[in-house]
Design brief:
- By secondary structure, this protein is α+β, with helices and mostly antiparallel strands.
- The chain is built from three helices and six strands; from the N terminus they run H-E-E-E-E-H-E-E-H.
- The protein has one domain: Alpha-Beta Complex (Aspartate Aminotransferase, domain 1).
- It is globular.
Amino acid sequence: MRRALSGRRGITEKRMFGGVCFLLRGNMLCGVGDGKFMFRVGKDQDAAALRRPGARPMDFTGRPMAGFVWVDPASCDARRLKGWIAMAERYVVALPSKKK
């Protein structure tokens, strides 16, 4: 994931959820943890994201977190990984920057 994000402007890393999250302008974009990829796709893209191979709802408390998905890394070749990042980026670029 780090390699797929290299060279992009505004990306930072932060330890979260027992793994590493990548932030775009201070907003969570995607991450790696517990042997899975995580993508923040937003509620409007949630259903489409969950129809993709290897995707399932993200939950920490026993309830799904709308707009966030876990993805099995085995289902992500380089092209699919870029597609997931692009989907997450479509949502996150519309958010106000949290970066100071």
